[in-house]
Design a protein that fits this description.
- This protein is of the alpha/beta class.
- It is built from 15 helices and 15 strands.
- The chain folds into two domains: 299 residues, Vaccinia Virus protein VP39 (Rossmann fold), CATH 3.40.50.150; 67 residues, N2,N2-dimethylguanosine tRNA methyltransferase, C-terminal domain (Phenylalanyl-tRNA Synthetase, Chain B, domain 1), CATH 3.30.56.70.
- The strands form four sheets. A seven-stranded mixed sheet has the order 5-4-3-6-7-9-8, with helices on both faces.
- The longest helix has 19 residues.
- The chain is globular and about 70 Å long.
- The model has no long low-confidence stretch (mean pLDDT 95).
- Bound molecules: S-adenosylmethionine and zinc ion.
- The site of zinc ion (ZN) has 8 residues, from loops.
C-alpha cells in the first residue's frame, strides 16, 4: 500500500488516541536536538499537539451530543491527517470528514492513513489550498457542521472562508501559534493580523485568546453571524478558541458590544476593561498612580468559556483513556472555575518580585482575598495566576499582610 501511494521519506507508525498513523520519523530530519523537528520534516507532524487534538475530540463530541444528530467536519490544514482521522474514529455521530493539505506529500500520507484506518467511506482527502477548498463548500447544504483550522501561525487568513463554509449553528475551532504578536512582542504584526493591539503583560495569554476571538467576531459580523465562545484554552505554545456561529444581524450587533479595550499601567499594574470600540473613551493616565496608561485592543471582552460545555467535555474525558487525561481534567476543572471570573489575571511571582517579597501559596492568597470580600479565582492560563476584582494597589497591600502573617505563623 505504501508503494502505491509514493511516500519517499523516513516514516514510522505511531498510536494516538484510538488510531494508528504513519508519520514522518522526526529524528531523521534534525541534526541537533535544539532544532524544531515538526517543521523540518517534509510533512508537518507535532507529537506535542496530542493534548490539543485530545481536547478537540472531547469538544467535538460535546458539540455532537448537544446537536444529537450526525455531523460533518472539515480540517482544511491537516498535515498527515491524524486529527481528522481521530475525529472519524473517536467522535460518535461523525458522518463525514474532509481533510485537506496543500502539500502533496502531506496529501499522500493522509491518503495512506485513511486507508490504513479503513475510513475511505467516511473520510475524503483533498490536496487544495485551504481557502479554495473552504470556498467550494460555501453554498447552502454544502456547509460543514464543524471546521477545525489548525495552522502553523495565525488562523486569520482562513477565517473569512471558514465562516462562509460553516452552517448555521456550526462549531468553528481555531488554533493560533503566533504567540509573539499575540503576546505583545511583535506589536505591529498583531495589529495587522488581528486588528487589535496586544501588550507585554503577565496576562498576555488571555489577551491572545481575546484578540483572536475579537478578530473572529468582527469577521463573522461581516457575514451577519454572531458567535458564542463555548471553550478556549492556552497551552504550551498556542491558544485555541471553540466558537458556535449563528446567523442574525442582531446577534452580530450584540457581539460588537462585547468588543473593547483593556487599559494597563506598566508602573503599578492597574488594569481595567473599557467597553466599546471608540478609542475616545480611553483614559491617558492611570487612575491609581497617574502614570501614562497603555492599552490592548480592540479585543473581545465577552465570555470565553461556557460552563455547560465544559461539563459535557468532562463527561467525555471520563469515558476515554487518553494519554493526557489527567492534565485535561485539571485544565477543565480550572476553566469551569474561572468561567465568570474577572478579566486579566495577576501573577503572584511577578508582583512579589516587584515588592521583593517571597511568593505565598496561590491557595492562601485566594483565601485572603475572599476573606476581604473580593472575588478570587485560579486560572488555567497560569499556575501562579489569580483573577480578582481587587485593585492592584489592594492586592499588593494584602500580599504584604499575608507574607508577614505567614512569617509570624512559621515562628
Ligand atoms: C500545523 S500543520 C497541521 C497539523 C495538523 N492539523 C495536526 O493536527 O497534526 C499546518 C498544515 O497546513 C498546511 N498548509 C499551509 N498552508 C496551506 C494552505 N494555504 N492550504 C492548505 N494547507 C496549507 C501545511 O502543509 C501543514 O501541513
Ligand atoms: Zn498606575
Amino acid at each position: 500500500m505504501k508503494d502505491k501511494i509514493k511516500i519517499d521519506f523516513p516514516t514510522e507508525i505511531i498510536r494516538e488516541g484510538e488510531v494508528k498513523v504513519l508519520v514522518p520519523k522526526l529524528s531523521a530530519f534534525v541534526k541537533s536536538p535544539s532544532e524544531y523537528a515538526p517543521s523540518k520534516a517534509p510533512v508537518f507532524y507535532n507529537p506535542v499537539m496530542e493534548l490539543n487534538r485530545d481536547i478537540a475530540v472531547l469538544a467535538l463530541q460535546a458539540y455532537q451530543r448537544s446537536l444529537n444528530r450526525a455531523i460533518s467536519v472539515c480540517e482544511p490544514l491537516a498535515g498527515c491527517g491524524i486529527r481528522g482521522i481521530r475525529f472519524a474514529v473517536e467522535v460518535k455521530g461523525v458522518r463525514e470528514v474532509v481533510i485537506n493539505d496543500i502539500n502533496e506529500k502531506a496529501f499522500q500520507l493522509a491518503c495512506y492513513n485513511v486507508r490504513m484506518n479503513e475510513l475511505c467511506e467516511r473520510v475524503v482527502v483533498k490536496n487544495d489550498d485551504a481557502n479554495f477548498l473552504l470556498s467550494s463548500y460555501g453554498a447552502p447544504r454544502k456547509r460543514f457542521d464543524s471546521i477545525d483550522i489548525d495552522p502553523f501561525g495565525p488562523p486569520v487568513p482562513y477565517l473569512d472562508s471558514a465562516i462562509r463554509a460553516l452552517r448555521n449553528g456550526g462549531l468553528l475551532i481555531l488554533t493560533a501559534t503566533d504567540m509573539a504578536p499575540l503576546c505583545g512582542v511583535r506589536s505591529k504584526a498583531c495589529i495587522r493580523k488581528y486588528g487589535g493591539k496586544s501588550l507585554r503583560t503577565e496576562y498576555c495569554h488571555e489577551l491572545a485568546v481575546r484578540l483572536l476571538t475579537g478578530s473572529l467576531a468582527m469577521t463573522a459580523g461581516k457575514q451577519a453571524m454572531g458567535i458564542n465562545i463555548m471553550f478556549s484554552h492556552s497551552a504550551d505554545h498556542y491558544v485555541r478558541v471553540y466558537a458556535i456561529a449563528k446567523y442574525g444581524a442582531k446577534r452580530a450587533d450584540e457581539n460588537i458590544k462585547n468588543m473593547g479595550y483593556i487599559i494597563h499601567c506598566m508602573r503599578c499594574s492597574h488594569r481595567e476593561s473599557i467597553e466599546g470600540l471608540s478609542p475616545i473613551k480611553l483614559p491617558r493616565k492611570c487612575s491609581e498612580c497617574g502614570s501614562k496608561i497603555s492599552f490592548a485592543g480592540p479585543l473581545w471582552l465577552g465570555k470565553i468559556f461556557e460552563k455547560s460545555f465544559c461539563q459535557l467535555m468532562e463527561e467525555e474525558v471520563d469515558k476515554r483513556v487518553l494519554k493526557n487525561g489527567k492534565r485535561i481534567r485539571k485544565i477543565l476543572a480550572l476553566i469551569k472555575n474561572e468561567v465568570d471570573a474577572p478579566i486579566a489575571y495577576y501573577v503572584l511571582d511577578r508582583l512579589c518580585d516587584e515588592l521583593a517579597l517571597p511568593v505565598p501559596p496561590v491557595k492562601s492568597f485566594i483565601r485572603a482575598l475572599r476573606e476581604e470580600g473580593f472575588e478570587a479565582f485560579r486560572t488555567h492560563f497560569n499556575p501562579r495566576g489569580v483573577k480578582t476584582n481587587a485593585s492592584a494597589m489592594l492586592i499588593k497591600e494584602l500580599l504584604r499582610i499575608v507574607i508577614t502573617r505567614e512569617a509570624v505563623s512559621f515562628k
